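HUMAN: Mind making up another protein with tokenized structure?

ASSISTANT:
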Amino acid sequence: MTKRPYTAVLIVPTGIGAVIGGYAGDAMPVARAIAQVVDRLITHPNVLNGAQLYWNLPNALYVEGYGLDQFAAGNWGLRPVRQNRIGIIFDQSVESELRSRHLQVADAARATLGLTLTEYIVTDQPLNVELKTAASGATWGTIAHPDSLLRAADKLIHQAGAEAIAVIARFPDDVESEALQNYRHGQGVDPLAGAEAVISHLIVRTFQIPCAHAPALLPLPLDPNLSPRSAAEELGYTFLPCVLVGLSHAPQFITHSSNLPTDVWADQIDAVVIPATACGGSAILSLGRSLRVTRQGSQTRIITVNENHTKMQVPAQVLGISAISVNSYLEALGVLVCDRAGINQNSLQAAIAPLKSLSPNLKDGGLISPKRFT
């Protein structure tokens, strides 16, 4: 029997202060490493977006968070593409000069990277993004005119033929805020991430099309003590390059009624890697269901990473999810290698316990019903 591709999912939830993956693309090295030991990696923009920095992973699928939740639940499949036509939405609040800077980036992506972009559109009302912080420390946000955002997306899709949407919304400049200072020094939660997720979720949920967001902000004053994990966001006027690169090859969302052999579905997932305290998201709840079995009959491995601390306190065991607990992403890589090779990971340890005898006190008088093998 031909083996199908070994597929892993890497999740670092947005806006929860993950010490790895909670900053400017700082989970990208993890994604690059995992991509080397699996056939196919599925992950999301929070992992692969690094502002003006990005890395092409030919075997990675760039899937927005709401779309990833629907995929994990088995509602949507993923259809790999060669290239998407990307439409850009500008928030009306983005100043003329700042918009020009972003348009220059879009033109550079066409001329330098060979990406295909449609016409752009400006929302008919300001989106008026507001940033919020939950009691846990996680970030979220709101937009005042979601209807304006959806009208703009509808026009790009139906009039310009866009197959993926990049949104550039004007975010508040709060240079002196404690949250921003902590984030720049590698100690806090990304103050923008939660609101960004609201924007992309809305478009993906409504149109079932790939979407990602690049916040428009004025350049920050120089900080010589900047954390390396936050530094990618300090390189220029825009976060747009990584978004355009990711969306250019983001898989399309499909339903069971339009299935092709190359489509990817949740029952093809072999393993999921996630921070140990962040297991309460929709995707993990779907993938971690008891006896979730892949097409080849094995259970999906849930691998939780202890050292990637977050502001959440939702471990797998509290939810009744069976998981393999590891200390680091390096250890997670070892588990993936063993699983893909069909090797019991315990056999790599120095001490191996001897086999134990099964108790003869079985039900049904010690007889095993043949039905159990049908």
Observations:
- The mean pLDDT is 89.
